[in-house]
Design a protein that fits this description.
With about 180 residues, this protein is of the alpha+beta class. The protein has 4 helices and 8 strands. The longest helix is centred in the C-terminal third of the chain and has 25 residues.
Length: about 180
């Protein structure tokens, strides 16, 4: 191993990732709804993705374990862009895990049929440092989301919530005034 390679940062490749740039004036929830209907998926709005303190809407869908994962991210918020592109993009649709090129072509064609979408085109994820950084931010948001879901589903989390509610009930009983009878 070359000593110079020892201290280099290696960025994960996005070989199984496709990014589709979307230009649309539709609000995020309407666009997600139209995409849900057109592609027969079920986007759910999740906690916003933050970059530099600016919130960008984040929608997530997965078909389950070992299935494709879809993310719809607003990349324009408060006159700031998560990703600068020419032509201007408003949303990024990211699809991962074993998607065939024929399916990507079908998705792009279907997106173009949605009224309110001006442009929808495939972006080259291997070119452009800014796109790779945006994909990394999206992936980190997804990992955070999965960790939160895992935490919420854990038995210890449920036990802690029950104990919190019991403590609140006990506190409320202790501080509540005694009923007065006339």
């Amino acid at each position: 191993m070359n000593p110079k390679d020892k201290n280099k940062i290696r960025v994960a490749s996005f070989e199984d990732t496709f990014a589709i740039g979307i230009n649309s004036g539709l609000p995020d929830y309407k666009l997600a709804w139209f995409i849900n209907k057109k592609l027969c998926i079920d986007f759910a709005r999740e906690e916003d993705l933050y970059d530099g303190g600016i919130p960008f809407s984040f929608f997530y869908y997965t078909g389950g374990e070992n299935c494709q994962v879809y993310n719809l991210v607003s990349i324009q918020s408060q006159n700031k862009a998560l990703l600068d592109f020419n032509p201007r993009l408003d949303y990024l649709l990211v699809i991962r895990n074993g998607v065939l090129p024929e399916k990507i072509n079908f998705i792009i064609k279907s997106l173009r049929e949605i009224e309110g979408i001006g442009h929808a085109f495939l972006l080259d994820v291997n070119k452009g440092k800014a796109l790779k950084q945006a994909l990394e931010i999206i992936e980190l948001q997804e990992i955070y989301l999965l960790e939160q879901t895992k935490k919420q589903n854990s038995l210890e989390h449920v036990r802690q919530e029950v104990l919190k509610r019991r403590n609140v009930s006990a506190w409320a009983e202790q501080t509540a005034p005694a009923p007065q009878f006339y």
